[in-house]
Amino acid sequence: MNEGFTPTVDAVSKLIQEFNKLPGIGPKSAQRLVYYLLRAPEEQARLLAEALLSLKQEISLCSVCFNVTDSDPCLICRSNHRERSKICIVEQPQDILSLEHTRTYNGLYHVLHGAISPTEGVGAGDVRIKELLQRLQDGTVDEVILATNPNLEGEQTAMYLNRLISPLGIKVTRLARGLPFGTELEYADDVTLTRAFEGRQEF
Ligand SMILES: [Zn+2]
Protein backbone atom coordinates (compact mmCIF):
# COMPACT_ATOMS: atom_id res chain seq x y z
CA MET A 1 0.00 0.00 0.00
CA ASN A 2 1.31 3.47 -0.89
CA GLU A 3 2.14 5.73 1.96
CA GLY A 4 -0.50 8.39 2.37
CA PHE A 5 -3.11 6.26 0.66
CA THR A 6 -6.51 6.97 2.15
CA PRO A 7 -9.04 4.21 1.72
CA THR A 8 -12.44 5.37 0.46
CA VAL A 9 -14.11 4.25 3.64
CA ASP A 10 -12.18 6.89 5.59
CA ALA A 11 -13.36 9.61 3.22
CA VAL A 12 -16.89 8.31 3.63
CA SER A 13 -16.83 8.11 7.43
CA LYS A 14 -15.14 11.51 7.71
CA LEU A 15 -17.90 13.18 5.69
CA ILE A 16 -20.57 11.30 7.63
CA GLN A 17 -19.03 12.66 10.82
CA GLU A 18 -19.06 16.22 9.48
CA PHE A 19 -22.70 16.05 8.32
CA ASN A 20 -23.60 14.53 11.69
CA LYS A 21 -22.31 17.68 13.44
CA LEU A 22 -24.95 19.80 11.66
CA PRO A 23 -28.16 20.69 13.54
CA GLY A 24 -31.04 18.35 12.81
CA ILE A 25 -28.87 15.72 11.06
CA GLY A 26 -28.54 12.42 12.88
CA PRO A 27 -26.15 9.58 11.92
CA LYS A 28 -28.72 7.98 9.59
CA SER A 29 -29.40 11.19 7.67
CA ALA A 30 -25.66 11.91 7.51
CA GLN A 31 -25.08 8.47 6.00
CA ARG A 32 -27.88 8.96 3.49
CA LEU A 33 -26.45 12.33 2.37
CA VAL A 34 -22.95 10.91 1.91
CA TYR A 35 -24.10 7.90 -0.13
CA TYR A 36 -26.30 10.19 -2.18
CA LEU A 37 -23.29 12.39 -2.94
CA LEU A 38 -21.22 9.31 -3.84
CA ARG A 39 -23.71 8.46 -6.56
CA ALA A 40 -24.28 12.09 -7.66
CA PRO A 41 -22.30 13.64 -10.56
CA GLU A 42 -18.93 15.05 -9.53
CA GLU A 43 -20.13 18.51 -10.59
CA GLN A 44 -22.78 18.48 -7.85
CA ALA A 45 -20.25 17.64 -5.14
CA ARG A 46 -17.94 20.36 -6.44
CA LEU A 47 -20.71 23.00 -6.38
CA LEU A 48 -21.56 22.00 -2.81
CA ALA A 49 -17.94 22.25 -1.73
CA GLU A 50 -17.56 25.66 -3.39
CA ALA A 51 -20.77 26.96 -1.80
CA LEU A 52 -19.54 25.84 1.63
CA LEU A 53 -16.20 27.58 1.15
CA SER A 54 -17.68 30.83 -0.13
CA LEU A 55 -20.09 30.87 2.82
CA LYS A 56 -17.14 31.49 5.10
CA GLN A 57 -15.01 33.50 2.69
CA GLU A 58 -17.60 35.95 1.34
CA ILE A 59 -20.16 36.29 4.12
CA SER A 60 -19.51 38.53 7.08
CA LEU A 61 -21.55 40.56 9.54
CA CYS A 62 -22.98 43.99 8.74
CA SER A 63 -21.08 46.54 10.84
CA VAL A 64 -24.32 48.41 11.58
CA CYS A 65 -26.99 45.77 12.32
CA PHE A 66 -24.85 42.57 12.56
CA ASN A 67 -26.99 40.69 10.05
CA VAL A 68 -25.10 38.29 7.77
CA THR A 69 -24.16 40.01 4.53
CA ASP A 70 -21.85 39.90 1.53
CA SER A 71 -21.57 43.69 1.45
CA ASP A 72 -21.13 46.17 4.29
CA PRO A 73 -23.45 47.81 5.30
CA CYS A 74 -26.04 45.17 4.38
CA LEU A 75 -28.83 45.67 1.84
CA ILE A 76 -31.40 46.55 4.52
CA CYS A 77 -29.18 49.12 6.23
CA ARG A 78 -28.30 50.66 2.83
CA SER A 79 -31.87 50.76 1.50
CA ASN A 80 -33.58 54.13 0.89
CA HIS A 81 -36.97 52.48 1.15
CA ARG A 82 -36.84 51.41 4.78
CA GLU A 83 -38.13 53.45 7.74
CA ARG A 84 -34.99 54.53 9.54
CA SER A 85 -36.92 55.55 12.67
CA LYS A 86 -37.67 51.94 13.66
CA ILE A 87 -35.29 49.22 14.79
CA CYS A 88 -36.47 45.68 15.40
CA ILE A 89 -34.26 43.69 17.80
CA VAL A 90 -33.83 39.98 17.09
CA GLU A 91 -31.62 37.28 18.60
CA GLN A 92 -30.33 35.62 15.41
CA PRO A 93 -29.86 36.60 11.75
CA GLN A 94 -32.33 33.91 10.64
CA ASP A 95 -35.06 35.71 12.64
CA ILE A 96 -34.79 38.56 10.11
CA LEU A 97 -35.62 36.10 7.32
CA SER A 98 -38.77 34.99 9.14
CA LEU A 99 -39.91 38.57 9.79
CA GLU A 100 -39.08 39.75 6.26
CA HIS A 101 -41.09 36.82 4.93
CA THR A 102 -44.25 38.27 6.53
CA ARG A 103 -43.77 41.59 4.67
CA THR A 104 -45.35 43.46 7.60
CA TYR A 105 -42.30 45.41 8.72
CA ASN A 106 -40.34 48.00 6.82
CA GLY A 107 -37.90 49.34 9.37
CA LEU A 108 -34.33 48.43 10.27
CA TYR A 109 -33.02 45.54 12.37
CA HIS A 110 -30.42 44.85 15.02
CA VAL A 111 -29.14 41.31 15.64
CA LEU A 112 -28.00 40.62 19.20
CA HIS A 113 -26.41 37.23 18.37
CA GLY A 114 -27.82 35.61 21.46
CA ALA A 115 -29.90 36.39 24.51
CA ILE A 116 -29.00 37.15 28.10
CA SER A 117 -28.97 33.93 30.11
CA PRO A 118 -27.52 34.09 33.63
CA THR A 119 -27.87 30.31 34.00
CA GLU A 120 -25.66 29.76 30.95
CA GLY A 121 -23.31 32.57 31.86
CA VAL A 122 -24.34 34.85 28.99
CA GLY A 123 -24.34 38.44 30.20
CA ALA A 124 -25.30 41.74 28.57
CA GLY A 125 -21.70 42.19 27.42
CA ASP A 126 -21.80 38.94 25.45
CA VAL A 127 -24.50 40.11 23.03
CA ARG A 128 -24.53 43.20 20.79
CA ILE A 129 -26.28 45.55 23.22
CA LYS A 130 -23.53 48.17 23.44
CA GLU A 131 -23.61 48.53 19.65
CA LEU A 132 -27.39 48.92 19.76
CA LEU A 133 -27.19 51.75 22.29
CA GLN A 134 -24.66 53.48 20.07
CA ARG A 135 -27.10 53.31 17.16
CA LEU A 136 -29.80 54.97 19.27
CA GLN A 137 -27.67 57.98 20.12
CA ASP A 138 -28.24 60.16 17.04
CA GLY A 139 -31.97 60.58 17.71
CA THR A 140 -33.29 59.19 14.40
CA VAL A 141 -34.92 56.15 16.05
CA ASP A 142 -38.30 56.69 17.73
CA GLU A 143 -39.38 53.07 18.17
CA VAL A 144 -37.54 49.93 19.19
CA ILE A 145 -39.43 46.68 18.66
CA LEU A 146 -38.29 43.84 20.90
CA ALA A 147 -38.64 40.64 18.88
CA THR A 148 -36.53 38.38 21.07
CA ASN A 149 -37.86 34.85 21.50
CA PRO A 150 -40.88 34.25 23.73
CA ASN A 151 -38.90 32.05 26.13
CA LEU A 152 -37.13 32.71 29.44
CA GLU A 153 -33.91 34.09 27.91
CA GLY A 154 -35.78 36.19 25.34
CA GLU A 155 -38.04 37.66 28.03
CA GLN A 156 -35.10 38.50 30.29
CA THR A 157 -33.32 40.17 27.40
CA ALA A 158 -36.43 42.15 26.45
CA MET A 159 -36.92 43.37 30.02
CA TYR A 160 -33.27 44.35 30.28
CA LEU A 161 -33.40 46.29 27.00
CA ASN A 162 -36.65 47.99 27.99
CA ARG A 163 -35.01 49.25 31.18
CA LEU A 164 -32.09 50.67 29.17
CA ILE A 165 -34.00 52.15 26.24
CA SER A 166 -37.22 53.55 27.77
CA PRO A 167 -35.37 56.31 29.69
CA LEU A 168 -33.94 57.55 26.36
CA GLY A 169 -37.42 58.73 25.37
CA ILE A 170 -37.74 56.04 22.69
CA LYS A 171 -40.96 54.03 22.41
CA VAL A 172 -40.28 50.37 23.24
CA THR A 173 -42.71 47.75 21.96
CA ARG A 174 -42.74 43.96 22.24
CA LEU A 175 -44.19 41.53 19.70
CA ALA A 176 -47.64 40.44 20.87
CA ARG A 177 -47.33 37.13 22.64
CA GLY A 178 -50.04 34.91 21.36
CA LEU A 179 -50.90 31.45 20.29
CA PRO A 180 -49.10 30.13 17.25
CA PHE A 181 -51.43 30.08 14.26
CA GLY A 182 -53.00 26.67 13.79
CA THR A 183 -52.83 25.75 17.48
CA GLU A 184 -55.81 24.47 19.40
CA LEU A 185 -56.36 25.92 22.88
CA GLU A 186 -56.39 22.48 24.37
CA TYR A 187 -52.77 21.92 23.35
CA ALA A 188 -51.37 25.34 24.29
CA ASP A 189 -49.14 25.47 27.35
CA ASP A 190 -50.09 27.63 30.33
CA VAL A 191 -47.53 30.37 29.74
CA THR A 192 -48.56 30.82 26.11
CA LEU A 193 -52.23 30.79 26.92
CA THR A 194 -51.85 33.26 29.80
CA ARG A 195 -49.87 35.66 27.63
CA ALA A 196 -52.28 35.33 24.75
CA PHE A 197 -55.05 36.26 27.14
CA GLU A 198 -53.13 39.20 28.61
CA GLY A 199 -52.17 40.42 25.18
CA ARG A 200 -55.74 40.30 23.86
CA GLN A 201 -56.56 43.12 21.46
CA GLU A 202 -59.77 44.85 20.50
CA PHE A 203 -61.44 42.90 17.71
ZN1 LIG B 1 -27.16 45.93 8.29
Radius of gyration: 22 Å
Mean pLDDT across every amino acid position: 90
Shape: globular
Give the helix/strand class.
alpha/beta
Strand content: 5-15%
Which segments are poorly predicted (pLDDT under 50) over 5 or more consecutive residues?
none
- The quaternary structure here is single chain
Number of helices: 8
- Strands of the biggest beta sheet: in what spatial order? 4-3-5-6
Termini separation comes to 77 Å
The largest sheet is: 4 strands, parallel
Task: Kindly state the percentage of residues in helix.
Answer: 40-55%
List the SSEs and their pairings.
Elements: H1 8-20, H2 27-39, H3 42-58, E1 60-61, E2 68-69, H4 75-78, E3 83-90, H5 93-102, E4 107-111, H6 129-135, E5 143-146, H7 152-165, E6 171-174, H8 190-198
Parallel strand pairs: 3-4, 3-5, 5-6
Antiparallel strand pairs: 1-2
The gist of it:
By secondary structure, this protein is α/β, with parallel strands linked by helices. It contains 8 helices and 6 strands, in the order αααββαβαβαβαβα.
Overview of this protein structure:
With 203 residues, the chain is of the alpha/beta class. It contains eight helices and six strands. It has helices at 8-20, 27-39, 42-58, 75-78, 93-102, 129-135, 152-165, 190-198; strands spanning 60-61, 68-69, 83-90, 107-111, 143-146, 171-174. A four-stranded parallel beta sheet has the order 4-3-5-6. Strands 1-2 form a two-stranded antiparallel sheet. Helix 5 links the parallel strand 3 and strand 4. Helix 1 crosses helix 2.
